[in-house]
Design a protein that fits this description.
By secondary structure, the chain is an alpha/beta fold. It is built from four helices and ten strands; from the N terminus they run αβαβαββββαββββ.
């Protein structure tokens, strides 16, 4: 059954409700970062690890291909990989990028988070 999950690719419309969505601004910024790092065409691995002031931390890395046990999503031209354990905490996540006066950075909107820290990079579920 894990093979079936890893082969599942959801489009942008489905990603918001069932998985991970990336705004056009975030997708553009991530594509630029990938190009600058020599990783053009890679996907975005989104995960969760223990840590931060709220208990769980978001983790973003660039990966060439998904692992067998990862769910695959597509949003605004970006492939997104999520391991099954992290998916439990990230389902419905929206990733944005803000470059306004209050600073630059990625903004996580996670419907599963019951508490977040002030910096927005850690949460409790």
């Amino acid at each position: 059954m894990q093979g079936e999950l890893s082969a599942e690719v959801l489009n942008s419309k489905d990603s918001v409700a069932k998985g991970i969505a990336v705004t056009p601004e975030a997708s553009s910024h991530l594509s630029e970062l990938m190009t600058n790092d020599g990783k053009a065409g890679y996907g975005l691995k989104v995960g969760v690890k223990g840590g931060g002031c709220s208990g769980l931390q978001y983790e973003l890395t660039f990966e060439k291909e998904p692992k067998n046990d990862e769910k695959i999503f597509e949003s605004n031209g970006l492939r997104i990989f999520v391991d099954l354990k992290s998916y439990l905490y990230l389902r419905g996540l929206s990733l944005d990028f803000s470059g306004g006066l209050n600073g630059k950075g990625f903004v996580f909107s996670n419907p599963n988070a019951v508490k977040t820290c002030g910096c927005g990079t850690s949460f409790a579920a």
